[in-house]
Amino acid sequence: MSLKSWLRSCVKGLSVLMTSVNYTRPDVVVLNYHRVTGNLALELDIPFADFSAQMHWLAANTEVISLEQALHLAAGKSDPRQPKDAKAELLDELPGGWISEDPFANARRENRRLKVVLTFDDGYEDFYLLAWPLLKALDLPSTVYIPTEFIQCPDQTPVSRGLLAKVNLSGVDHSAVNGDQVLRPMSWAMLKLLQQSTDVTVAAHSHTHKEYPSLLAKDVVRDIDQAGDLFETYLGCRPKHFSYPRGAWNLSCEKLVRQYYASVALVGGGGFLTDCLDPFRLPRVPVLRSDGLAWFRYRLMGRLVYEEKLAGLLKRRPVVPPVNLQITK
Question: What is the CA radius of gyration of the chain?
Answer without folding.
Answer: 20
